[in-house]
Amino acid sequence: MKKYGVNELRKMFLDFMESKGHLVMKSFSLVPQGDKSLLLINAGMAPLKPYFTGAEKPPRTRVTTCQKCIRTGDIENVGKTARHGTFFEMLGNFSFGDYFKKEAIHWSWEFLTEVVGLDANRLYPSIYLDDNEAFDIWNKEVGIPAERIFRFGKEDNFWEHGAGPCGPCSEIYYDRGEKYGCGKPGCTVGCDCDRYMEVWNNVFTQFENDGNGNYTTLKQKNIDTGMGLERLAVVVQDVDSIFDVDTICALRNLVCEIAHKEYEKNYADDVSIRLITDHIRSATFMISDGIMPTNEVAAMFSAV
Ligand code: SER
To answer: Atom 6 in ligand 1: which residue has the minimum CA distance?
Structure first.
């Protein structure tokens, strides 16, 4: 497999989705517009919520983006795992009442195996508990044996974030090999360690959560897919962590240079180097979207 760079992978994805009829749109700002349920944009679908609910008409019923995202929910893992960062780019293809499960699943497989060239024998789909429709597409159409398809519950395979459009999902995991595993008995797809890395999430967005756990069926069935660009680069480049992929590694090396530290000499220093690298990315993108930092709590409150 060719070890594509981050910038190549971003373009390959957007070009592929464009060839499937999607309109390529620019990343939206990290600052949510007209959405009081979020402090920061945390997923490719977040700025597109009105298109999923049908409240607004999208420029096309098929859209693709590479969206700047900030997620702080996993902040304690940043620097310690291979895959967590507060800032990341999310590749996504979206259907607003257009195609549904069949196309979304087939295209995710086609992109990963034929365009990027990942080894199909290392890929494992997961589905929501009783989503037999998704199971049949993976099993009968794509040809994945039943024992390689994992069924997970709401915690893993139902995507929602507070209020808004949501639904069951089907993820794709990549087995990076034993060298990245925890070695514990039972380590398999879904394990918290860094061996089986989730790269793609196909969400079948068909419900709306009112924020209090009440679900209503949306007028239209939608698709919201998300793939962390940095994670994809980790598996394609076969490197240890997101801090070793080409673009982020350049920044990490600069952090080492300024701090007069050598990477991979001492675990505690490495965690700090990774944290600083991650936080610089987040801070830079937030500032470029107009969020001004301060270390004065009083200033923060007087601004609101
Ligand atoms: N919304 C889903 C996620 O963020 C898929 O895009 O994983």
So the answer is: 226
pLDDT in tens, 14-65: 999 999 999 999 999 999 999 888 999 999 999 999 999 999 999 999 999 9
Instruction: For ligand 1, say whether the CB of 201 is within 6 Å of any of its atoms.
Output: yes
Q: Read off the tokens for 90.
A: 């999310």
43 Cβ closer than 6 Å to some ligand 1 atom: yes
Q: Whole-model pTM above 0.90?
A: yes
